[in-house]
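User: Here's a structure from my thesis project, written as structure tokens. My advisor, Dr. K., wants to see whether a designed sequence matches the one we expressed. Can you design one independently, without my sequence as a hint?
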């Protein structure tokens, strides 16, 4: 992902292998996908059109103080770049998992028909619709569809906003949604130096501090309605849930890790089993992103639950 070198990604993958036993099988594929993303940008130097916000850093800070977001969720990405990036990812998955070749070809053919090259840009909402239609009209399953479409959308969206998001002072922002694009986050971390809860936007990568005892989905701060669980084979990832909105999100305990900065998106991908457990308990992601297949929702699991 944007901002992380190939070596940093490699080190983070190895860390996740050690932390999350269930990540072993997927680690090689995830690494290959990141390599495909890097090759795509080397081969496509004009993959994005830079987005510029009409205001100074002080103007932006004042908006955040006044509880106003930048509302940049409507920024569109280049259609041709999205199609080419997804094709690069599906090609890498086909090489890494030969039994997926037919499904990946189905998806490539589907996108060729569904993304008209006469339309220069594509919106976030259109990408989400493409994701749903791909599951309906191809043999692509929900979890892989979410991964491919969210990865492609987020990768291009972050590069489109690269000149803006890397310099933002989000310290005045305390709402649960992203101060830049207003998406609800799916994951966050406990900051190593002080244990503060830091949320990260899955779409644009913006980070901001949020109350330790508040749901980012519905803003409930009723401690009787909020809780968390961990799993027995690893407590670095905590699933926070809310009984008011029946939502959940994941927090990686950065205080327990040696590194000062971690690549949260990788830790999210390494802990998708936690998403499955949360949904088996009746909670839905506050982000609205479904990372599991519906047929997997059966059985009861032994969780370490706290309120």
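Assistant: Designed independently from the structure alone:
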């Amino acid at each position: 992902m944007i901002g992380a070198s190939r070596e940093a990604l490699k080190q983070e993958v190895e860390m996740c292998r050690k932390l999350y036993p269930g990540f072993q099988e997927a680690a090689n594929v995830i690494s290959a996908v990141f390599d495909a993303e890097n090759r795509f940008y080397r081969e496509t130097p004009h993959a994005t059109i830079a987005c510029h916000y009409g205001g100074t850093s002080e103007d932006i800070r004042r908006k955040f103080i006044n509880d106003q977001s930048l509302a940049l969720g409507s920024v569109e990405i280049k259609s041709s770049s999205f199609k080419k990036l997804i094709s690069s990812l599906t090609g890498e998955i086909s090489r890494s998992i030969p039994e997926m070749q037919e499904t990946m070809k189905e998806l490539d053919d589907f996108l060729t028909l569904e993304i008209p090259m006469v339309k220069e840009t594509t919106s976030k909402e259109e990408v989400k619709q493409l994701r749903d239609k791909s599951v309906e009209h191809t043999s692509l399953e929900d979890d892989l569809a979410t991964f491919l479409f969210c990865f492609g959308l987020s990768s291009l969206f972050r590069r489109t906003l690269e000149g803006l998001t890397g310099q933002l002072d989000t310290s005045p922002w305390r709402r649960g949604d992203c101060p830049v694009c207003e998406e609800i986050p799916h994951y966050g971390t406990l900051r190593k130096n002080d244990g503060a809860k830091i949320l990260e936007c899955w779409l644009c990568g913006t980070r901001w501090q949020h109350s330790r005892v508040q749901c980012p989905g519905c803003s409930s701060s009723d401690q009787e309605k909020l809780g968390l669980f961990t799993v027995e084979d690893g407590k670095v990832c905590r699933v926070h849930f809310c009984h008011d909105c029946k939502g959940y999100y994941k927090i990686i305990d950065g205080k327990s890790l040696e590194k000062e900065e971690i690549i949260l998106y990788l830790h999210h991908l390494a802990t998708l089993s936690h998403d499955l457990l949360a949904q088996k308990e009746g909670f839905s992601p506050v982000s609205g992103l479904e990372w599991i297949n519906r047929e997997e929702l059966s059985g009861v699991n032994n969780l370490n639950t706290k309120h």
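When you compare it with your expressed construct, this may help: The beta strands are 77-78, 121-122, 187-190, 197-200, 207-210, 226-231, 234-242, 247-252, 284-285, 304-306.
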